[in-house]
Amino acid sequence: MVDSARPRLSLVVPCYNEEDNVPALLDEWFRTLKSMNIPFEMIIVDDGSRDRTLERLREEQLHRPELRLIALERNTGQSGALVAGFRAARGEIVATSDGDLQNDPNDLPALFERVARGECDMVSGWRTKRKDSRLRRISTRVANGVRKRLLGDGMNDSASSMKVYRREVLEHMPVFNGMHRFFPALTILQGFRALELPVNHRPRLHGKSKYGLWNRAFRATLDMFGVAWLRRRAVRISAREIVPATHATH
Q: Which residues contact 38 (CB under 8 A, 6 or more apart)?
């Protein structure tokens, strides 16, 4: 039986110390989600914020029935917050975005349609014109080039937060801190199809980036070698159950 209350789309957004972005974040996303004319839910995961992010979200929730809030007791990082959102999501298709408004909600419908039409199992946004500092753009370009060669995922911007998945892709994905940088490779590792499409990228207006040299370069490099090892050691099993002949339909 199909659950009529089940949303077609779940949007998962991690937030950490984004109190100044909350009103605009919800206004923009709800405008886009409602324009798609499908049942949806928006799940915001507060990743142990130390400011008024959760308080402002609770105020907004009073007049947005599609808004669900997940509050983590402590800061776990982007991967942990995303996993918490994935586990709460009820949609057939799951999308993700950042909470800093640098992702453009207007890009979601095109990405959603590629997955909904069955062209791929996940689609990742490629921020072709990054609105970040020059140092960050250069370091990201180098990291993406090394990762692309080592993991063979074909992605130019693996760590982009703008992504859309069939929920089956997320059900058995390995969980570890830093996994959000490798979602396309982990998707392909499971035998699913991944696609990349250009998306808009906007400058941050409020707050500050949560990533520094340690958690962007050194730790990400170690994680990349771990994913490369997993890719080499992966076992894909294709099997079917054999039933007794007496059970077969004549």
A: 7, 8, 9
Lowest mean pLDDT among 28-37, 61-70, 140-149: 140-149
Identify the H or E element spanning 180.
Answer: none
- CB burial of 116-147 (b: ≥16 within 10 Å; e: otherwise) equals beeebbbbbbbbeebebeeeeeeebeebbeeb
Domains of the chain: 9-233 (3.90.550.10)
Amino acid at 96: T
pLDDT tens column, 148-187:
666 778 888 988 999 999 999 999 898 888 888 899 999 9
State the DSSP H helix or E strand holding residue 50, giving kind and residue range, or none if neither: none
Q: What is the DSSP string of 196-245?
A: EEEE-B----SS--S--HIIIIIHHHHHHHHHHHHHHH-------PPPPG
Element (H, E) at 113: helix 108-116
Helix then strand then coil, % of the chain, to nearest 5: 40, 15, 40
Burial class (CB in 10 A: 0-12, 13-18, 19+), 151: buried
Residues facing 44 on adjacent strands: 13, 69
Strand order in the sheet with 9-15: 67-71, 40-46, 9-15, 93-96, 163-166, 122-127, 194-199
* DSSP-assigned beta bridge partners for residue 70: 45
Q: For 123-143, what is each residue's pLDDT tens digit?
A: 999 998 876 556 565 556 656
Q: Which residues contact 188 (CB under 8 A, 6 or more apart)?
A: 153, 194
